[in-house]
Write a structure and sequence with these properties.
The structure holds two protein chains of two kinds. By secondary structure, chain A is of the alpha/beta class. In chain A, α3 crosses α4. By secondary structure, chain B is an all-alpha fold. Chain B is 81% helix and 0% strand. Classes of the chains: A alpha/beta, B mainly alpha. At the A-B interface, α2, β6 and α3 of A face α1 and α5 of B.
Chain lengths: 281, 290
């Protein structure tokens, strides 16, 4: 198996007497999209900030492409969008990307700037001052900024919190495109439906500890198959989508008329609520 | 520092300059400075004219012309240092903690530039602009003094370079304060430190006038602790170092702080102090969680 792009081992962080992270392990591989879930104050942003060198860990290790997080090599390999960010309001979108190209040492030039702005649907706003943009536009510009220099690892902290449904869809499509380009993505989000839609792997953090991890399907469990028959709605617990043809065949063989079949599984929200035990920040 | 870091540092310096231009900071500074220089020119003109009037026919115990030129140019130096200090503080306001709290800093610091290079670049931008500013205003004030009263200081360039180094030190102190203090606290603390330095100079001056060794020592120690004041005092000394007699004595006790020769020790100390303050700021910044 290829070495992970982001490797988090036994990560600890204390702020005075408060424990923000306690022994967290996590890996993100190339082309993998990992969703990090948890209530406010669970330690998600702290983990992301340690990965990009903004916060120093109290213990454990974080590596980006085998280099210690925070080192120049590690920083050169990643793109980051903070939950709370601000760009110079007097800059235009184009100028901001040019600034980050220079800081990232990107030789992409105008072609890269144009491509990134189009990817986040800001092609028409290249010359617009940031202070004149809506919060949603600024957030999409933030995503474009994080992609300057084609990073191998993208760390996104609540990248869709200010976006309308169209904006969210744009970012979702962008994330899928990044997966195709083998970019590793760590996505912090409160939007469970979004994480469920795009992520290959989900990690749930509560109280600084990793409480659950796996693919959305693994976490969701087998669920149930619901069948509407002539004699009413019947539910087959612990059955999955693959069991549906057999269930229908058995019902028809038993003389039942089948009108509707639905494979149901417990939603990520159920799993999440179960994992965090009703905690909220 | 690698080539890439140098390019990144130049980018950060350019960003500060571009912001100053776009936000019209430099335009405001230019307009206000033009106002100050116009007022200074008017004051210098009338000062020389009136002194020529009342000094004529009096016995020559005091060179009224030199006294007027040095006093009014000393005032210009004081105002130039003050304006340069204001510029240095505003160009470094909120560079670390303020920008981190508003979310401006993080997108830049996660880039390969690194924290120390970013800090040094911000210092270089602020210090260069402030230093250039004080040198230009100082020379403009000299040109006005020369044109209105036909008076020039005994040393022209030394005091200008002293002022430039003084504002660079103020920019470094302000940057250091920005690593631990919020924007408002940073501004207040740096201006209070600036005021304390000037008071220390006045204490030394009073100690000289009263022949009080204790007061003079307190003032001197304090002004070495804040060497921008020592450089300013040395600059004032440079204006009149060749003026002798009662005029020279009177000017040494001038109203805008006591003059005192710098010596190589003060200059070396000022550079070491500047590097020390920057090193401390870089250390504190490197330890800070953002």
């Amino acid at each position: 198996m290829a070495a992970p792009v982001l490797a988090v081992r036994e990560l600890n962080k204390r702020y005075g007497s408060q424990e923000a992270l306690a022994g967290v392990d996590l890996e993100v591989g190339a082309g993998q999209l990992v969703g990090l879930l948890g209530p406010n104050g669970a330690g998600k942003s702290t983990l992301t900030k340690i990965a990009c060198g903004l916060v120093r860990p109290s213990g454990g290790a974080v590596e980006v492409l085998g280099r210690p997080a925070g080192s120049a090599e590690a920083r050169a390999a990643l793109g980051y969008l903070a939950e709370l960010f601000r760009f110079p309001g007097w800059c235009t979108a184009e100028e901001l990307l040019r600034l980050h190209q220079r800081l990232a040492g990107s030789a992409g030039g105008e072609a890269e700037r144009r491509e990134l702005l189009e990817l986040v649907d800001l092609g028409e706003a290249a010359g617009k001052r940031i202070e004149a943009m809506s919060k949603g536009m600024q957030q999409r510009l933030g995503v474009a900024q994080a992609l300057v220099g084609s990073p191998r690892l993208l760390l996104l902290d609540e990248p869709t919190s200010a976006l309308d449904p169209v904006g969210r869809r744009i970012v979702r499509e962008l994330l899928e495109e990044l997966r195709r380009r083998s970019v590793a993505v760590l996505l912090n989000s409160h939007l469970l439906s979004e994480v469920e839609l795009v992520c290959d792997h989900v990690a749930i953090i509560a109280g600084g500890r990793l409480v659950k991890a796996g693919t959305p399907a693994e976490l969701a469990g087998p669920g149930a198959v619901e069948v509407e028959t002539g004699s009413g709605v019947r539910t087959f617990e612990d059955a999955g989508r693959e069991d549906a043809p057999r269930i229908v065949a058995d019902l028809v063989a038993a003389g039942e008329s089948v009108y509707r079949v639905e494979a149901r599984h417990s939603s990520l929200e159920d799993v999440y609520l179960d994992a965090v035990g009703g905690q909220t920040g | 520092m690698s080539g890439g870091q140098l390019r990144s540092a130049a980018t950060v310096v350019g960003l500060s300059i571009q912001e100053g231009i776009r936000r019209r900071v430099f335009l405001a500074v230019l307009v206000l400075t033009a106002g100050f220089l116009a007022l200074y020119g008017l004051g210098a003109h009338f000062a020389f004219e009136d002194v020529e009037g009342f000094a004529s026919g009096e016995p020559e115990i005091l060179d009224a012309h030199a006294f007027t030129g040095a006093t009014i140019f000393g005032m210009a130096m004081f105002a130039t240092l003050f304006l340069g200090a204001v510029l240095a503080v505003f160009l470094t306001l909120g560079v670390v903690r303020g920008d981190a709290e508003s979310g401006l800093l993080q997108p830049i610091v996660v880039r390969p530039i690194g924290r120390t290079t970013m800090l040094v670049a911000r210092f270089a931008g602020a210090a260069t602009l402030s230093a250039l500013y004080v040198v230009v205003v100082y020379l403009a004030a000299w040109a006005i003094t020369e044109a209105t009263g036909d008076w020039s200081p005994d040393h022209l360039l030394g005091p200008a370079l002293g002022l430039a180094l003084a504002v660079a030190i103020i920019a470094a102190l302000s940057l250091l304060a920005s690593t631990v203090l919020s924007v408002t606290a940073q501004g207040i603390v740096v201006f209070m430190v600036f005021g304390a330095g000037l008071v220390a100079g006045l204490l030394a001056q009073i100690g000289n006038a009263l022949d009080s060794d204790s007061l003079h020592t307190i003032g001197r120690v304090a002004s070495w602790a804040l060497p921008f004041e020592g450089l300013y005092a040395a600059g004032l000394h440079g204006l009149i170092s060749g003026t002798t007699g009662l005029t020279g004595v009177a000017l040494q006790l001038g109203p805008f702080g006591g003059s005192e020769a710098a010596g190589a020790g003060l200059i070396a100390w000022a550079f070491a102090y500047l590097l020390g303050v920057l090193a401390l700021a870089a250390f504190l910044f490197s330890r800070r969680d953002l």
